[in-house]
Each structure stands twice: as C-alpha cells, then as structure tokens.
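May I ask for a protein sequence together with how it folds?
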Amino acid sequence: MKNKLWIIILIMGIALTISLVYSVIVSHKKANGDHTITTTSIIEMTATTVTIKNTLSGTGVINYLPKNTFEQDTANASQQENNVSSTENNSSSEVNEVVKSYQIILSVDDKDVNKIIKDQETEISVKNNENSFQYKGKVIDINKESNNKSTIKIEVLNPDNNIQEKMEALCTLVLEKAENVVALPIEAVQTDEANQKYVDIVLDDGTTKKININTGISDDYYVEITSGLKVGDRVQIIKSSTTVVENKKNKE
C-alpha cells in the first residue's frame, strides 16, 4: 500500500513539474516574444468599364538614323530603274536623298521577344529640361538573338522640336489592348480546385452567390471579364492579414 502511495505521489509530482515548466515557458514567450494579430475584412467591388493594356516597357537612347525598311529599299530600287537611262546620259551622278527618322533601339528578354510584332503600337515618353513629352511610335525592326541579346528598333512617328538625339526615352509597347470592356480588380477574381475562375456576387438581399466567370487580358490592376458579369454587378472578397507585433522590451 505504501509503495502504491509513493508511486501516486511521484506521478503527481512529475505532472505538477511539467505543468509549472509549461506555464513558465508560455509566460516567458508572452513577456519577451513577438506575437501576431490576424484581422479579417470584407471588401466589396463593382464591375466597371475600362480600357486594359498589356504592355512591355524598356528604356533606350534616341538616335537620328536612316530608315532601312524593306519598303524604303523597294522604293529606291524602283526609282533607280526608272532613272537609269537619264543617269547614263548625265555626266554628274545624282545622289538619292537619304530619309532619316528618330529611332530607339531596345534590348528585349528572350521570353518577351516572341510577343512583339512589326508595326506594334508604342507609347514613347521623353524628358527635356524637366518637362515630359509624349510621342507615338511603332516597331520597324526585330532582331531575334539568344542569351538576351535580342533587340528591337522603334521609330518615333510624330517628332517635334522638343526631341533630340541622345535623349533617353521610355518606350511602352502595347502587346494587347481591350477597350471599354467589363473588368474587375485582379484581387476580386478567385480560382477553385478545378482551376475555374469565379467571384462571389452580392445579391439584392445582401447575400452572396458563387458565379463562374471567364477572363481575358489583364494589366497590373484590372482583369477583363469576358463572360459571367455585367457592368454594375457587385462582388465580395474576404481578406485576412497577419501583423507581427514586436515586444517593446525586446527593442530595449
């Protein structure tokens, strides 16, 4: 009987010791360690009409160069054929006028060069004396190489007196554009386990309903909704964020 009593007392002592040690550890963490705060918020967004551009940007230097396009070469060749007889009879050779334009050469990553096509619309921004000027441009040449050595040549279509050689220009190529389309902020679109995109639409009574949607192109903020929603539809998302709060004693 005494042996059993001692065993019971020993077990109780071990349990008490474990409990005390655990309490000390927890108290120590609360007193000295960081802790996190998780907040949940419900955000409502409305489908609207926007213009979305999928773009590719790069910076290059403006140069005043001859226009070595296929069309230019063909035109010159035709002109030379028409003038060949008069040239032979003329003692002084006639020099054809060299057409130049403001051009920008950009380096392009291997993964992006195949997205670019000739005559692609380009938006050009140039700074001159702290003023910013906007121009239109187009891709006139594509040089595809490996190891990120691909380049493209862009021509400025509407130069004026504010543009000069050796200026730095920010070029934005419009790879895709969808004008006046139904769109939502990207964060409003969710994807389920079957890889189907959907949103939680807000009904008139305030409840929500899952609606499958199809999407088109997107930019840094908006995504095109090609089916499933119309302008004015409200959608709801639940966002959770976790903030780590540092203990002041640790900072001291």
Remarks:
- Residues 149 and 175 are 20 Å apart (CA to CA).
